[in-house]
Design brief:
Radius of gyration: 20 Å
Shape: globular
CATH class: Mainly Alpha
Distance between the termini: 21 Å
Largest sheet: none
CATH superfamily: MFS general substrate transporter like domains
Number of domains: 1
CATH topology: Growth Hormone, Chain: A
Helix content: over 70%
Structural class: mainly alpha
Oligomer: single chain
Strand content: under 5%
Amino acid sequence: MGLKSYPRLYFELIYVGFAVVMGMGLSTSFLPILASDIDPSGVFVGLVVSAFFVSRVFIELPAGIISDRIGRRKLLTIGVGFYALGAFFCAQARVIHILILGRAIWGLGTAFFFMTTTTLMIDLFDSKARGAALGIFQGIEFIGSFIGAPLGAFLATVVSYTDVFYFTVALALSSFIVALTSRSLRTIRSEQTRRSSLPMASALSNIRKWSIMLICLITFFRMFIMNGIFSTVFQLYLNQHLLFSLAYIGIIMSVRTAGLIIATLSSGFLADRFGRKPIAMVGLLISAAGLATYATISGLEMFFVIGFFEGFGQGLIFTTLVVLLAESTHPSVMGAAVGLNRTFMDIGGVVGPIVFMAVYATFTPQVSFILALAITMLNVALLALIGIKSKHM
C-alpha cells in the first residue's frame, strides 16, 4: 500500500500532528531552565514538567472509551483547543503556579489529541499497512519536534522565554482549523461508531489481558525515564554541571530527535518485516547503552554522537509498542486500550520528573542515568514475557 493510496484524512492528520508536536518542541530546550529561574528553590521544577501529565492520568481511559462510542472528531478538536489555551497560560506565567496551571491545561489537550490520532491511525489501516503508516506519521511528528527545539532556543534569545509560547499558540490554532473543517473526520465518525457499541463495563473487561498489561507497564517505565531524564534532568545537567549554553543544549536535543525520527520512520517497515518484538528489543538495548554512556562522557561532540544513537533506540520502540497493542486488542475496544496505555504513560510522566529530580538533587547526576539504565533493562525483561499470536512474531 503506497502513500498515493492513503486516505486524505491521513495527510490532514500529518499536518495537525506536525504542527502540534513542533509547538511542543519550541519549549523543550528551556522549560526546566525557565521553571528554575521563576522558582530558584527548585521545589516546583519537577512539578512544572509533571503537571503536563497530571490531568491526563484521569482522562485518557474515559476519553478512549467515549471516542469508541461517539467518534474521534469532537475529542480531537477539543484537545487542540485546550492545547492552545494551556500554551497561552504559559505565556502569561510570571509566577511558578501559573506555569504549572498552563502546563496542566496543555497536557489535558494533548491527552485528547494523541489518544485520538493514535486510534485514528489504527482505524484507517489494517495490520499489513499499519506499521509503515504509523511509523511515517509519528516520524513526521518528530520532525516537528526536531525543528521546534533549536527554533525555540533561538527564539528565546530574541524574545523572552514566555513569549515563545505565543508561537505555540499560533501553531495550535492552525491545527484546530484543519481538524474543525475536515470532511474526512465527519465521514470516519459514522463508520467507526457503528463498530463500537459495547457497554463500558464490557469494554473495560475486554482490555484486561496479560499482553495489554505488559505493554502498559513497558510504556509506564519508558515515559518515567523519558520525562524524568530527557524533559527534566538532562537539560539541567548539561546547563548546570557541564556549563553548555542554551544554544548547544538545543542542538543536542535536536540531534537526539534526528535519531528518533530516522528510527521512527523506518521502524514500521522493519517491524512489518522482522517482527514487532525483535525491533522493540533492539531499541531498548540501544537506549540502555546510550544511558550508560551519558553517565561517563562530558565532551560536546560525544553528546552529539551518543544523543543520536540513543534517540535512534527510542524511535525503534515508539511505533512498535503501539502496533503490538493494536494486535492485542479487539477493534471494538481499541480506543479503550489506547486510553489505558496512555494512562500508564501519563502516570510515568507525572512520577518520573519528581523522582529523578529528587535523585538529581540528592546524589550525583550520574546516579540518575544509572537508575534509568536499570529500569530500561527491566523493560527488556517485560518485553520478553509478551507472547502475541501474530504472523509478524
